[in-house]
């Protein structure tokens, strides 16, 4: 069966990185495809015997984005294996990326009035408005504090996961960088004992045995993990019945290095029988690719 990945989202959020990763994974990739050609492109790919195709669609396709949610629904109703990945980032991050790249936002000309160019934040705000219907119903990855290597790894893990049943993701993050926009459920573990204040443990992470053993020595830590796991065991069937395809459970601590990482790893062990299961750490750990 033909597998289709549709990459969309906010300009500057990493779609080119995602598309290159999919190309490396042997997907036939097309960038900036007009919405009106999506159904025809998929039909031709199926006729040609292709197994995997990826398409990037964003605000560079003028006047058609409003039709995209209905097109996606219709394609799935016809039995198309279609996965939509929506990439997003905070406005502050997007402004910084545009400043570094010195590129113009694709909506600049469309918003220009009387010879006056719109601000970058105005362009981003309109883009969010145009893409809101897609963001609300598809899988979102917030790339605000991700390196290109992390984003590539996350995309790779996602496309390797089956579409059904629900893809369960445990994700650690640092509150000092803000709550990730792709989180469905958020649990705050900053109330737990902090290994950071032990000089020997400070340079390590929650995946290292000394930190794990230290945290496991506190009953409070085990109780927190039990409570989160109990909540998920109780409500996960309801999320599944709600026809969700993805559920991202974000665990946050101050720096995203010790407590949240440990709790995510322990939860992943508790839910190891759930397939597909993904584990992500927003703070780049030493053995992750740059």
TrEMBL record:
Protein name per the record: RNase adapter RapZ
UniProt cross-references to Pfam families, sorted A to Z: PapZ_C (PF22740), RapZ-like_N (PF03668)
Organism in which the protein naturally occurs: Achromobacter veterisilvae
Positions bound to GTP: 58-61
InterPro entries: P-loop_NTPase, RapZ-like, RapZ-like_N, RapZ_C
Residues annotated as domain RapZ C-terminal: 167-283
Binding site for ATP: 9-16
Lineage top rank: taxon: Bacteria
Domain RapZ-like N-terminal, first and last residues per copy: 3-162
Family annotation (SUPFAM superfamilies): P-loop containing nucleoside triphosphate hydrolases (SSF52540)
GN (gene name): rapZ
Matching NCBIfam families: PRK05416.1 (NF003828)
Keyword terms of this UniProt record: ATP-binding, GTP-binding, Nucleotide-binding
């Amino acid at each position: 069966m033909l597998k289709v990945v549709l990459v969309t989202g906010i300009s500057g959020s990493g779609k080119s990185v995602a598309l290159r990763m999919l190309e490396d994974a042997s997907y036939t990739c097309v960038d900036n495809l007009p919405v009106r050609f999506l159904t025809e492109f998929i039909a031709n790919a199926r006729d040609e015997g292709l197994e995997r195709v990826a398409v990037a669609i964003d605000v560079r396709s003028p006047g058609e984005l409003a039709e995209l949610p209905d097109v996606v629904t219709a394609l799935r109703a016809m039995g198309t294996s279609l996965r939509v990945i929506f990439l997003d980032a905070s406005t502050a991050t997007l402004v910084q990326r545009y400043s570094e790249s010195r590129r113009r936002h694709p909506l600049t000309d469309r918003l220009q009035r009387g010879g006056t160019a719109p601000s970058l934040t105005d362009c981003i705000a309109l883009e969010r408005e145009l893409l809101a219907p897609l963001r609300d119903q598809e899988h979102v990855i917030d790339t605000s504090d991700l390196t290109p290597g992390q984003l590539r790894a996350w995309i790779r893990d996602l496309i390797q996961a089956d579409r059904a049943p629900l893809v369960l993701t445990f994700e650690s993050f640092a509150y000092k960088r803000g709550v990730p926009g792709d989180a469905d459920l958020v649990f705050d573990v900053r109330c737990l004992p902090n290994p950071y204040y032990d000089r020997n443990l400070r340079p390590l992470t929650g995946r290292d045995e000394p930190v794990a053993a230290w945290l496991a020595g506190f009953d409070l830590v085990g109780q927190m993990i039990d409570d989160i796991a109990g909540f998920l065991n109780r409500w996960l069937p309801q999320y599944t019945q709600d026809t969700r395809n993805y559920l991202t459970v974000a665990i946050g601590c101050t720096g995203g290095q010790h407590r949240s990482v440990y709790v995510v790893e322990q939860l992943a062990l508790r839910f190891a029988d759930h397939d597909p299961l993904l584990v992500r750490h927003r703070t780049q750990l030493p053995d992750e690719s740059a």
